[in-house]
Structure formats: structure tokens, C-alpha cells
Design goal:
Elements: E1 3-7, E2 10-13, E3 18-25, E4 33-39, E5 46-52, E6 58-60, E7 68-73, E8 78-83, E9 92-101, E10 107-111, E11 115-120
Parallel strand pairs: 2-11
Antiparallel strand pairs: 1-3, 3-8, 4-5, 4-9, 5-6, 7-8, 9-10, 9-11
């Protein structure tokens, strides 16, 4: 089995930074892509960012470009989301994802349980 566990969420002041981690466990785990989604209260889950296996290709939703950076360490089976210049509208539950196409929910094979990020104004 495969399990994704997010960590690093919490309360942060607007303009601050948070680094989320997603650790994958399970000896059968293998994923060509990993990514992050988020869901704010009362809204649909949306794509945030994704990264290819090698780390050479990344994608971001327009609202976070220039502020968020996704990375991965395959030796540690871990993905990261560095979030800078945080805004109150970034407040959401952030979900780690792994699969063939992690820019779309349809391509996600595994989901983390989510971690709350709250940005105070």
C-alpha cells in the first residue's frame, strides 16, 4: 500500500512563508508525478502545482506563480511546497497528490489526508 502524509501546515501571518512536506511510504510506491491541491472552506478543490519525476518540469496555477515553488527528493520519496508571500486567500486545506497526471484530479492515484494552512490578515 501507499500512504502520503503532509506536514508543515499551521498559522502564519500575511507576507510570511510556510514549507509543506509530503512523505510517501510503501515499498511499491512509484509515481511519475507529484503535486499539490488545496480546498478552501465552501469552495471546490483546486490545482496548485505539480512536478515531474525528474523535477525538470513544473506547473503552477496562475494565482501562485512567483510565490510558490514545488520540489521533490526521490531518494526520500518526499515532495515539498515552499509558499512565500502568503496572502489570506491562500488559506485552505492543502493536499499532496501522486499519480500519472497530477495537474488534474483524474490523474491522481494517491491522496494525502490534507494539512491546514491559515494565513492571518
Amino acid at each position: 500500500q501507499v500512504q502520503l502524509v503532509e506536514s508543515g501546515g499551521g498559522l502564519v501571518q500575511a507576507g510570511g512563508s510556510v514549507r509543506l512536506s509530503c512523505a510517501a511510504s510503501g515499498r511499491t510506491f512509484s509515481s511519475p508525478g507529484m503535486g499539490w491541491f488545496r480546498q478552501a472552506g465552501g469552495k471546490e478543490r483546486e490545482f496548485v502545482g505539480a512536478i515531474s519525476w525528474s523535477g525538470g518540469v513544473t506547473y503552477y496555477v496562475d494565482s501562485v506563480k512567483g510565490r510558490f515553488t514545488i520540489s521533490r527528493d526521490n531518494a526520500k520519496n518526499t515532495a515539498y511546497l515552499q509558499m512565500n508571500s502568503l496572502k489570506p486567500e491562500d488559506t485552505a486545506v492543502y493536499f499532496c497528490a501522486a499519480g500519472t497526471i497530477t495537474t488534474q484530479e483524474r490523474g491522481v492515484d494517491y491522496w494525502g489526508q490534507g494539512t491546514q494552512v491559515t494565513v492571518s490578515s
